[in-house]
Amino acid sequence: MSKSQIAWWCAQLLCVGVGVSACTGSPPEESPRASRESTWEHFLSQVHQEPGSGVYIANGDEPFSDVTQLRAFYDAHVNTANVGTRQDGLAIMVRNGARARWTEAEKHHLSYCVSTAFGTRHATVVQAMSDAARAWEAAADVRFVHLSEFDSNCTASQLSVVFDVRPVSGGAYFARAFFPGDARAVSNVLIDESSVGRTRSPSLTGILRHELGHTLGFRHEHTRPEAGTCFEDSRWEALTSYDAASVMHYPTCNGTEGWSFTLSPLDIAGARAAYELPNRIGILRPSGLAYIQEQGRGTTWTLVASDVQALALGSDRIGIIKTDGNVYVKEGSLGAAWMWQTSNTQALSLAGDRIGVLHHDGIVYVKEGRLDANWAQVRSDARAIALAGDRIGVLGNDGQVHVKQGGLGADWVWQTSNTQALALTDTRIGVVHNDGNVFVKEGDLGTNWVWQAANTQAISLSGNRIGALYTDGNVHVKEGGLDAAWVWETSITRVLSLSGDRIGALHNNGDVYVKQGGLSTNWTLVTSGATDLVLSTP
């Protein structure tokens, strides 16, 4: 969104073009139909041209290399009678009749640099990019990779990365990005200096969540006719139903979620439709052999490692603790190479681009980014660890639970005591107290606990589902709000795992059952003779 558009749509509010600004003014008396009938001259007068590069910016934050490309866009998508007529979904960019998305080979290597020209704010931008990237990585089978070795030479001509992140000042936007398939010269995330170091909403991280949505191919949600205003063009295709709460929807264009710019449930569903996460099931055999099956890709079990004592699955990562305490992780396909991580380990957790380990001495270490990133010590005297989104949870040897949210250096927030088990999602925390009572809280770290069940031995969380494994081996799952009704699922169970719309149960006899869909769907026996079960995290 250009600054002139922001002035139209805001009155004493902080506004986002895909960034922020204090602004004044009144909404224009212009309907979507009036926008569609814009002349070329009027359209060109509303387009910003970047100084130096000469790149044109339309729709607030979309780049066009030259006036020829811009005119072709106008003729095909603005000056036409049938634009904006589709009625569905989180919208993905359409170019030359095909979805603009990264290929299977590209989507796990979306590398970028962050220019040191940010100066003293460089670390702030690095962290905000990491946090924004993690939100999309948790939703879809994509991987953003910060190649910091190129930060000192981070320009539009840096060919060792997919895109560069650089500062600008005094432009007509507050941040802008690009779409898959754009030329390298315009494959940039440019951030106006006014957007860095903000203390008010929207945060820089929120701005970048929106921008990285563009880099994955997603359009502004308000270009759909249901928004009733802010029409842009017809270059989109539906992935979900219309979503006024989308991270890609401007609040000033009849969006409903204010300035948080967080991914909505439909954003997550749309991202998964474009970049489907592998639905993996992992099991251990008594012999220490670890097998993985990818649902939807046949029923074959693939042997991935031997001498394994523990197995963890992330979105596209597989982690193992060997019987000697060494940890290895691989990412991508089942045939990818293992990378050694650390030794002397008793517990392992994966979430997005984070890896967490608990050493035998009770010290917790977490790394984020590439598999060869450095470890950061975050806690000591622990007996369990859980990762989810940008949250880290630790259960201490004294039964105290602490959780932090944000960067690895964020402050710990005490949660509860007398705890035997801990589970996390990016919005929920669940605990089993020593007396078998289950409590769950939802929202920020300071919200109140809500009692859920008694006589339990384990809990599993995923999305809006809560699963409880009772001491008698019965499994109950609820879906929706914290006050939703429990639904009995199965019995004689020793391991329970939830992931998205899947439920997995390992029975006492070693049989593994998985169901997908509603809580009342039928179970499928997927294998026998297992000693542990884990489902890949969505």
Low-confidence segments, given as residue ranges, are 1-37, 81-89
Overall shape: globular
Please tell me how large the radius of gyration is: 24 Å
Count of individual domains = 2
CATH structural class of the largest domain: Alpha Beta
In the sheet with the most strands, the strands line up as 9-8-10-12-11
| Share of residues in helices | 10-25%
**Strand residues, percent:** 35-45%
Distance between the termini: 32 Å
SS-derived structural category: mainly beta
Helix count from the secondary structure assignment: 7
What's the average pLDDT?
85
List keywords for this structure.
538 residues; four-stranded antiparallel beta sheet; Collagenase (Catalytic Domain); five-stranded mixed beta sheet; Methylamine Dehydrogenase, Chain H; mainly beta; 2 domains
Describe the protein's architecture and organization:
There is one protein chain. The protein is about 15% helix and about 35% strand. The chain is mainly β. It has a 5-stranded mixed beta sheet with strand order 9-8-10-12-11, with helices on one face. The chain has a 4-stranded antiparallel beta sheet with strand order 16-15-14-41, with no helix packed on it. Strand 34 and strand 35 form a beta hairpin. The longest helix has 18 residues. The two termini are about 30 Å apart.
